[in-house]
Structures are given as C-alpha cells and as structure tokens.
Amino acid sequence: MSKLALLGGAKAIGEEGRALKANWPNIGLEAALCDYTGAKYAKCVSAGTAALISGLFAAGCGPGDEVITVAYTWVATVGAVLRVNAVPIFADIDPRTFCIDPEDVKRKISPATKAILAVDYYGHPAPIPELMAIAEEHGLVLIEDACQASTSEINGQKVGNLAHFTAFSWSGKPIYSGSGGGAFLTSDRHLYERALLAGQHPTVIQGLATDPDVLKYASMGGTGDNMRAVGTDAMAQLMDAEVRTDARIRNCDYLTEKLSAIPGITPPYVRPGYKHVYHYYNCLWDATPWGFSRDTLCSALNAEGIFAVAYLKDANFNFAPESKPIEAGGPIHMRTIFQERNLYGKGCPFLCPHVANPPVYSEGDLPVSEEMWKREFAFFQPDLSPPCDERDMQLIVDAVHKVLDNADALKQWEQERASQ
Fold first, then answer.
1. Distance between CA atoms of 226 and 47, rounded to whole angstroms?
2. 141 and 131, same domain (yes or no)
C-alpha cells in the first residue's frame, strides 16, 4: 500500500504522478503536453517548422549529411532539412496511408544518412514502430513530423512519445492556436538540450541546459535564431482536444461509409491499431467511370460550396486574398530547387564539398508519390470538426452526388477549357 503524501509518501498527483487535466493551466502548456503524450520534455516554439529545424539540429544534421524523408508532404518538412544545410533523400510512400514506406527507407540508407524524418500525413501516423527499429539498427535519429497529427495514436500510445523526437504545429491543426506556434517533444535529454540551440533565448538555454557542450553555446542562443514560443492559447484547445478529435473521427467515419459506395472514389485508409485524426480527409479519384479529372471534380465541388483541394498544390490557396494555387509539376522532388540543386549559391547544400555523392532528383524516382499527385483530393478540417455533425457530412455527400449526376456536362466543360 502506498504511503500517504501527508505522512511523507510520494504524491499521487503532480510531481510524482500524472497531472489531472484540471491542473494543466497551472502547470503550463509544456508540462501539460508531456502529461498528455507521455514525453519527458517539451518546448514550445514559433511554428511547426521551427520544431522540425530544432529536431534536425539536435540530431546533428548539417553539411554533407543526408536526411531520408518524403516528397509527398507540405514544403515545411523538406524546407527544415535544407535549413540545416543537410541533403534530403526521398523515399516513396505507402499508397494507402500516404506515409513513408519503411522498405524504401531501408533502400535509401547510406553512410551519409543521419536521420529519418517521417510525416504523419493528414493525421494518419507514419509507421513509427517499424521506422524506430530501422533507426535503432543503423544508429539514426527518427524525427516525427506530427504537425498534422497531434492527438493521434498508435496502439493506444499518443504521438509525441513514439519517435526519438516529435514536432507539433498549432496553426489550423488538431490542437489549434489562432496565433500559430508549435512545440517539440522528446524523452531524450540530450536531444532536448541540443534542440534548444536551434533558436531559444540565451538566458532560457542557460536556465534549462545542464550539458557543458550545450551551455558553452548558450551565450549566442546557439545559432542566434529566434524560434521562441507563440501560440500559448493552444492550452484551451488541448483541454478538449480528445472530444473534438473523436467527434471529427465520427464525422469522417460517416463520410467513409457513404463515399466508399461511389465508383471512382477511394476514401482514406486507416491502418489497424492507428488513430487517424483527419487534419484533412483525403480520397483518391479514378476518372475512368466519369471521364473528367480530379481538378475538375474539385472545381465543381468548390462551386457547390464544398472546399475540396488537391492538397500539395492547392491546400492553402485561400490563405490570403492574393493567394493562388501553386504552379508545380509534381511532388517536391520535381520542384525547381531540386532540379537546379542550388539553394544557397555555389550548389549548396546539394553540391557542396562535404557531399560525397550528390543526389539527382528525377521524374520517375518516386512512382507512388507521382501517381498520388495526380489523383488525391481532400476535404478541409474545419468542415469535418465540431460543430459540424452528420447532417453536414451528408451535405458533402449530396454535393458529390450532384456533381457526378452531371458528369456529361462536366466532361464538356473540361474539354472546352482545355481548348481555350
């Protein structure tokens, strides 16, 4: 029997035990994130991108190092690799989950590989258990880009304490903050202290770090960047994150039930044991039964008032009044920076003297990613989340049926636009 704290025993709640949610505002967002996920350490930063950069810096990634990641992701994932002057090496994805393929990761490992950067795409966790086994076997750091997947789980364990290092984002994500921001989480003290050097205030590093090899750089704030926290109003969202996430999952389950009966549409796949939290609800489009493209489908749904996008190129085109869809010929490996291999001048980081085997990025390198680029479309998180309910999901289904009932008119519309 445990000894009462009143009589000198350990506390059941607080320092020696799990904090109650009611106490989270008192212990602060970082401590609450640790309690929520089970991670030992958390630090709030300015954005999910900042969290990724912090993780790569903590892992020691730099000039000449390779980081295996995906080209099927938002630009911030790969941009973080470039920011630390490392070289992205792209692995292909699982066509069902859109997450990194562990078998292709194995094929891409080289003596220069320093880390694996996996993306929990759309809120479906990457295959972290398999990737951790690969990372441990090869002495690599596994960084999880969970920016779209806070609140998700694998086999009942929260994302945030699965990989060596995890990045969260608050901007429009499952745990939300109107002012943006994010956090990094880890249970590795060395990675936690090293990550502080990517952009925390010198006095903060001085107060938190204990490693002499970290403290000696504290006076400059490590790199001198400013990645300090914003978005601390994410605490309010964390308090009821489970309720909102579970309601969104119920809505998406309804969509899956209805849309799976429609020829040409493949709803999201959820791997057994994985909790998909649906930052976006992604489908695959097969034009064969209908005769018009994915982009025409999205245009027609948008005109009906349903926000549907091809995520990699269109997701944020409503971000600001002047925004337009991204003009890009494919996933990230096909974009100009990777074709020119000269981001910082003089070929860096791709062709700098530290790179033993400069990569070449070509069409055909990632056949699954390149095919998904043509077929994938998604519905928007705010349209899936409370206060939206089953009645709102039925409106989405009804809009899809309306569009497909007019397939012949849409084929003609697409042909006329193509001839202009």
1. 11
2. yes
Q: Give the contacts of 346 (CB within 8 A, at least 6 positions apart).
A: 352
Tell me whether strands 376-380 and 87-91 are parallel, antiparallel or unpaired. unpaired
Residue at which a domain ends, from 207, 238, 269 = 238
CB 171 within 8 A of CB 47: yes
Report the DSSP pairing between strands 113-119 and 66-70.
parallel
Whether 352 is in a domain gets the answer no
| Integer-rounded Cα radius of gyration of the chain | 22
Return the pLDDT at 103.
Answer: 98
Structure tokens at 398: 């009804």
Q: What is the CATH number of the domain that holds 129?
A: 3.40.640.10
Say what the pTM is.
Answer: 0.94
Alpha helices in 147-280 (DSSP H): 189-196, 202-208, 212-215, 234-239, 241-259
The DSSP code sequence of 117-151 is EEE-GGGPPP-HHHHHHHHHHHT-EEEEE-TTTTT
Res 2: pLDDT: 77
Burial class for 304, CB neighbours closer than 10 Å (0-12, 13-18, 19+): middle
- pLDDT value at position 16? 53
**Alpha carbon distance 372, 32 (integer Å):** 37
346, amino acid identity: K
Residue closest to 293 by CA, chosen among 395, 403, 199: 403
364, with CB counted inside 10 A (0-12, 13-18, 19+), is exposed
At 169 the three-state DSSP class reads: strand
Range of the domain at 316: 240-331+366-419
| 33 assigned to some structural domain | yes
Q: For residue 145, how far is the Cα from the chain centroid?
A: 5
Question: For the chain, which residues score pLDDT lower than 50?
Answer: none
pLDDT digits (tens, 9 = 90+) for 149-189: 999 999 999 999 999 999 999 988 888 887 789 999 999 99
Q: Are residues 63 and 155 in the same domain?
A: yes
Q: What is the pLDDT of residues 208-248, one digit of tens each?
A: 999 999 999 999 999 989 998 875 678 888 998 999 999 99
CA distance 351 to 15: 50
